[in-house]
Amino acid sequence: MLSRRSILLTGAAALAAIAPARAFTFQPYDASAAGEAIRSGKPVVLHVDASWCVTCRAQRTVLSRLESDKRYDSISFFRVDYDGQKDVVAALASPRSTLIVYKGGKEVARMSWGVTQEEVVKVLQAAL
User: Fold this and answer.
1) Rounded CA gap, 60 and 55, in Å?
2) Can you spell out the DSSP letters for 37-91?
3) Do residues 37 and 76 touch, judged by C-beta distance below 8 A?
4) Among 23, 62, 82, 125, which one is least packed by beta carbons within 10 Å?
5) Would strands 106-112 and 98-103 be described as parallel, antiparallel, or unpaired?
6) Is 48 exposed, middle or buried (0-12, 13-18, 19+ CB in 10 A)?
7) Contact of 127 with 45, CB cutoff 8 Å
8) Averaged pLDDT in 10-residue chunks for the chain of 128 residues
9) Angle between the 54-66 and 117-125 helix axes, to the nearest 10 degrees?
10) Nearest alpha carbon to residue 67 among 127, 24, 100, 123
11) In a 10 Å sphere around its CB, with 0-12 CB exposed, 13-18 middle and 19+ buried, how is residue 38 labelled?
């Protein structure tokens, strides 16, 4: 007879096997880590985000749907807290709900307020 623990572990393993693996995850913005990633020349995306912002939430939803897309697994993603990191927001000269893409150590694309998957994918394509 299987124990409750065996059943739970088996079920968890089955769910893990069918759940899509994430190609990327957002890291909280840290100037040192983000700067190092940008200077490396590899693709980097910054998302200027506010927890209370409806547009930001829509962008987070789209980005969440794209997390398992392997096309983006070479990109480093950082989330800038619009309310808690005002100095960074000012340095970026960015409103909230903005995606900023760096490649080759330079900004190559920027999109503010876009909420459709098409708009988000278009800006992410600049990183590839």
Assistant:
1) 9
2) HHHTTS-EEEEEE-TT-HHHHHHHHHHHHHTT-GGGTT-EEEEEETTT-HHHHHH
3) yes
4) 125
5) antiparallel
6) buried
7) yes
8) 48 47 84 97 97 97 94 95 97 96 98 96 96
9) 70
10) 24
11) buried
Q: Which residues contact 65 (CB under 8 A, 6 or more apart)?
A: 117
Q: Where are the domains of the chain?
A: 22-125
- Residue % of the chain over a pLDDT of 70: 82
Its pTM stands at 0.81
- Give the architecture-level CATH label for domain 22-125: 3-Layer(aba) Sandwich (3.40)
The label of the residue with tokens 């088996």 reads: 10
Provide the β-strand partners of residue 26: 77
Are 120 and 62 a contacting pair, CB within 8 Å? yes
User: Counting Cβ atoms within 10 Å, is residue 16 exposed (0-12), middle (13-18) or buried (19+)?
Assistant: exposed
